[in-house]
UniProtKB/TrEMBL annotation:
It comes from Nonlabens dokdonensis (strain DSM 17205 / KCTC 12402 / DSW-6) (Donghaeana dokdonensis). The lineage of its organism: Bacteria, Pseudomonadati, Bacteroidota, Flavobacteriia, Flavobacteriales. One of its GO terms (cellular component) is membrane. The keyword Transferase applies. Belongs to the CDP-alcohol phosphatidyltransferase class-I family. Keywords: Membrane, Transferase, Transmembrane, Transmembrane helix. The chain crosses the membrane at residues 40-67, 87-109, 115-136, 203-225, 231-249. This is CDP-alcohol phosphatidyltransferase. InterPro entries: CDP-OH_P_trans, CDP-OH_PTrfase_TM_dom, CDP_ALCOHOL_P_TRANSF_CS. It comes from the Bacteria.
Length: 254
């Protein structure tokens, strides 16, 4: 993990693709490819996974889901290598993720007998899970001078960094606020004082990293391969209960 100083790193179960992502980023470091190009690549990989799910090609779907996760890490790695952080990339990444997540779940709903209401509730749960992980993770990154492109509270449009267009930042931030605002406010309401409490222990962050998108996609991929497609949406709906358990642990002891 390259977003925290060495002494505060934890085992991130959602970040299994980081080693390959670093190789990809390093191979692109001397080319004209930008982090935005890599983000577009993970969007294409996500769309390929959706197509494969709908067509019943579950091994291929699993490949593209995991490859999407790897590219999702590679765009940030390339930005760090080239020293080109940008809010454009940060918000485009997040907007693409939530749209793809919705499409993944709709594709799974389409090929199963799962209720559309369960699909919708599972998607909301999935996003709450990811938001809690990101909330705690960004707090750590900001505390220890890690990567600060992401802010604990995305409440106002940031000023464009060198090399990016303010208009693009404005548009993407509005989209981000529209798509994520409710989830951010919900998690903040549930744990308002997380930013002023004790430092989260590594074991807790590792546990919460199961909420990271990379791990979520890995679970979907494995369940598709095992023929458990009918259980994917109910699983994520049920696993949302862990949001309240993790928050309870954080509040009681940290």
């Amino acid at each position: 993990m390259s977003k925290l100083p060495p002494e505060h790193k934890f085992i991130d179960l959602s970040d299994y693709g980081r080693p390959v992502a670093k190789v990809i980023a390093q191979s692109l470091s001397t080319t004209s490819f930008t982090p935005i190009h890599v983000t577009i690549g993970f969007i294409i990989s996500g769309c390929a996974a959706i197509y494969c799910i709908l067509e019943g090609h579950f091994w291929l779907a699993a490949f593209f889901l995991i490859f999407k996760s790897i590219l999702d890490a590679a765009d940030g790695e390339l930005a760090r290598i080239k020293n080109t952080p940008s809010y454009t990339g940060r918000f485009l990444d997040s907007v693409a993720d939530i749209i793809l997540n919705a499409l993944f779940f709709l594709a799974i709903w389409f090929i199963t007998d799962t209720s559309l209401w369960i699909c919708a509730a599972a998607f909301l749960g999935l996003q709450l899970q990811g938001t809690l992980y990101n909330y705690y993770y960004v707090i750590l990154r900001n505390k220890f001078d890690g990567d600060t492109t992401s802010r604990v509270f995305e409440t106002d449009t940031p000023v464009a960094l060198k090399g990016e267009n303010q208009k693009n930042v404005n548009i993407l931030f509005k989209l981000y606020s529209l798509l994520y605002g409710t989830f951010d406010k919900t998690i903040y309401y549930l744990d308002t004082k997380a930013g002023i409490g004790k430092i989260f222990p590594k074991w807790l962050m590792t546990s919460i990293s199961t909420f990271g998108l990379g791990f979520q996609l890995l679970i979907i991929a494995v369940m598709l391969i095992l023929g458990w497609k009918e259980y994917i949406l109910p699983f994520f709906l049920g696993y949302t209960l862990m949001v309240f358990i993790f928050i309870g642990i954080r509040k009681k002891w940290y």
